[in-house]
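Reopening this one. Same input as before:
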Amino acid sequence: MFHRARPDHAARAGHEMTTPKRRIWGWFFFDWASQPYNTLLMTFIFAPYMASIMQDGTAAQTVWGYGIGAAGILIALGSPLLGTIADHTGGRMRFILLFSLMYVIGSWGLWYARPDDPNIWLVMLSFGIGLLGMEFATTFTNSLLPDLGTREEIGRISGSGWAFGYLGGVVSLILVLFFLAENPEGKTLLGGAPLFGLDAASREGTRAVGPFTAIWYAIFMVPFFLWVREPRKADAISVSAAARRALPDLKQSLRALPHQRSLFHFLISSMLYRDALNGMFTFGGIYAAGVLGWSVTFVGIFGILAAITGAVFTWLGGHADSRFGPKPVIKGCLVILSLVAISIVFVSREAVFGLAVGPESHMPDIAFFILGGLIGAAGGSIQAASRTMMVRQADPERITEAFGLYALAGKATSFIAPLSIAVVTAATQSQAAGITPLVVLFLIGLILLAPVRPQGDHATP
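Same output, byte for byte:
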C-alpha cells in the first residue's frame, strides 16, 4: 500500500503526463490552492474586517463562533458518510471537484459584506458553504497521501506539502495587502488605492478578498486535477449502492474502534487538539483586532510572519517526522501550543504578562507577533505530523476507511472550540477569558496521546 505509483500505472489509465514526482507536486498544489481560505478569510483579513464593521469585537467573536460551530456540526455529520461512499465507489476525484465548486461559490459570496449593511445571514451562509467545501475536499485529498510514497517517505511528503501551503498563504496575503486591502486612510500597504478602481470608502478592496480567494483556488487546482490520479478500484459500486451501505459500514467501524486501543486514543486525542488549533487560527485575527485594536492591514502583516515561520518549521517538522516518527513532533507541538494559549490571555493594551504598559507601548504588539510565529510553527507541524500518524495507525488494507474515521474524529467535535469560545466570551464579556477553553483542549489531547503506539495496533509488540 505504501509505495510510489509506477509510471506504467498512469500510462494504463491514459494519463502519460502523470509521473510519481508530478503526482506529489499535484497533491502539494491542493494545500497551496486551499490555504487562502484559512489565511485570508478565517484569520487575517476577512474575520478582522467583520469585527471592525460590527464595531464590537465581543459581538463579532460570538457571531463568528456560532457560525463556524454550526458549520462544524454539518462537517462532522457529512465527512465520514461521504468518505465511506467514496471508499466504495473509488471516486474521490469527482467528490473533490464538487467540493471545489462549493469552495469557490462560498468565497465569492463574501463580497457582499458591505460596511453599511453587512447582511450577516448571507455572509455567514456563504462562509459556511465555502468552509464545508474546503473541509470536505481536504478529507479526500488527505486520503490520497499513502499512495504518494513509502511509510518512511510520507512524513517528509506531508510536511513539505503543508509548508508549500503555508507559502501559498504568504503569497496570497502579500498580494491582498499590497494591492487590495485598504487601511483606515483608504490606502493599501504600498500606499496606493486598491486596484481595479475598487472604492476604498465602501471597503471594496477588503471585500474583494472573497472573489480573490475563489479565483486563486480555481487557478491553482489545475495542477492537482491534471497530475493527481487515484488507483482504479476493481470492486467499485455505484454511488446509490454505496450510499445505502455507508451508514451500516460506519456503525460497524465505530463499534470496532474501542478494541483498537492505539488508534482509538489517537483519534480522540487528535479530535481535541485539532479542534483547539482550529479555534486558535479562527479567532486569532478577531482577538488581535478587538483586544489590541489592530487594523486589518496590521493583522495581515502579523499573518505574513506567522505563515513564514509556519512554512519553515513545518518543512523542518516533516523531516523530523521522517527521522524520529510523528509522535515526538506532535507532543512537542502540543506543549508549545498550550503555553501560547495561556500566554495570549496575558497580552493586552494595558499589560503584558502582568507588567503594566503605557498606551503608546509597542510591547503588546511585539509579544503578539512572537506568539503568532509560534502558532504558525507549531500549528503547521502538528497538522502535517498528524496526517502521517494516521497512516501509521491504520491497517494498510483499509487505509481509506481509516481516513474516513480520521475525518470523523476531526469534525465530530469541531464545534466545541468555537462554541465554547462564543459561550465563555458572551458570559464573561471578555475576549481574553473567551480563549481559555483552548488551553484545556490542548492539555487533554496531550494526555490522551500517551498510550498511542508509534506504529499502531498492527505493529509487533
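So the earlier flakiness isn't reproducible anymore. For the record, The mean pLDDT is 85.
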